[in-house]
């Protein structure tokens, strides 16, 4: 015969020494009074055994205890069901503490519920840490929002005098000046345009960060828009003696619905970078119709160049704010690194996507997918 079968289990002694708070409630009485509490319960709550027995556990609740949690506990007890909740309770001295409360019903052989056994774990430190994390996140979010608002206001203020400077440069250039003065003015104009681009990009980042960048759904002619975009970048390509050309899918619908301004902003940025980072060779814009139905048309754009390329270990960070692939490129070509971040954010707002393939020293190709509403779907909707 086993030694364990000869020695009766002293359950009350064992439960009294547990490091968790244990309670036993009389389930046969409507008020569900406490029949037993262990030493850890009295240590945690500050109430003695005599002060606790015969009382409903709600004497531990206070003004900040969640009423919804209390209701869930009462419903579980009424249905004789198990429940696990987190609840804010109060000690005898009025100090708050958090409990992870596990309640299980105990039935006899006839199926009658005789007791509810509750095991409580003190999770006060964990809840405090969670609250501190939430507070820190909220503070960081408010700080970030405030910084974005400041950047937006600052750049609005910068843009007005900057436009004035650019205008004066144009006026001076129209006068009778020497070739050397013309060269100086051209350098000033290029610097002004670069600064204006940074200001505009910063404004867009501030709008995106505050969720204030709106999207339009208007009718536009995609082929005409693409021709206008390519024509805008031809002078820069001619100046660098590189070839700029475009191939467009002739099956492209004459009219689509979407945001042509944001699409142009994306393609302008990609083509501008392609021309900027290409010393010799070519830049190509390819436009294909990937899917077309009465409801939606999916256009695929690729911008390929034969420029300096991007190191493979830096491609993953390419769309991060203020990131350039190489600091030497930044010195040589200029730029803030904001443009590609804005492209990615704008495309996500349009339910589109952007990816990149590149070989350092051989060139880069950006792939853009953007869905647009077909004219037929707008007609049907109306």
Report what the structure shows.
- The protein has 382 residues and is of the alpha+beta class.
- Helix content is 46%, strand content 24%.
- It is built from 12 helices and 12 strands.
- Strands 6, 7, 8, 9, 10, 11 and 12 form a 7-stranded mixed beta sheet that branches. The chain has a 5-stranded antiparallel beta sheet with strand order 2-1-5-4-3, with helices on both faces.
- Helix 7 (179-209) crosses helix 11, helix 8 packs parallel to helix 9 (260-276) and helix 9 (260-276) packs antiparallel against helix 11 (338-349).
- Residues 1-9 and 322-337 have low confidence and may be disordered.
The largest sheet is:
7 strands, mixed
Oligomeric organization of the protein chains: single chain
Strand composition percent: 15-25%
Low-confidence stretches: 1-9, 322-337
Continuous helix count: 12
* Helix percentage range: 40-55%
How many strands appear in the DSSP assignment? Answer: 12
What's this entry about, in short?
With 382 residues, this protein is of the alpha+beta class. It is 46% helix and 24% strand.
Topology record:
Blueprint: H1 3-6, H2 11-16, E1 21-26, E2 34-37, H3 39-45, H4 49-52, H5 67-78, E3 83-90, E4 96-107, E5 113-122, H6 124-173, H7 179-209, E6 218-220, H8 222-239, E7 243-248, E8 256-258, H9 260-276, E9 282-292, E10 296-305, H10 327-333, H11 338-349, E11 353-359, E12 363-374, H12 375-381
Question: Which tags fit this structure?
Answer:
elongated
